[in-house]
User: Fold this.
Amino acid sequence: QLQVVESGGGLVQPGGSLRLSCAASGFSLDNYAIGWFRQAPGKEREVISCISATGISTDFMDSVKGRFFISRDSAKNTVYLQMNSLKPEDTAVYYCSPKYYYCSSDIRHYGFWGQGTQVTVSS
Assistant:
């Protein structure tokens, strides 16, 4: 069964950090890009960043550039999203999703979704 499982979310104070994980099972990330997305209440799901099958990362969201960093561990078949200097506006459910080999800024090009992990930034 092909699936991705997001974890690592939680409640954090403004300025804090979290590292989200996206663990893939049933397929190898060696041939897939992984995109990270987020969806705030009442808003559409939007792409944050992506890392290709070859390890090339692309940031799509200007508001997180320089604060969020994507990486992958092929041995663990897992992709991470390191989030630093968190702000209240980063509060959302965070999702990951695979796409064959290359990244895309179009959410419609991505495949299935995990259950998401909630990130809440509040004092």
Q: What stands out?
A: The chain has no helices and ten strands. The radius of gyration is 13 Å.
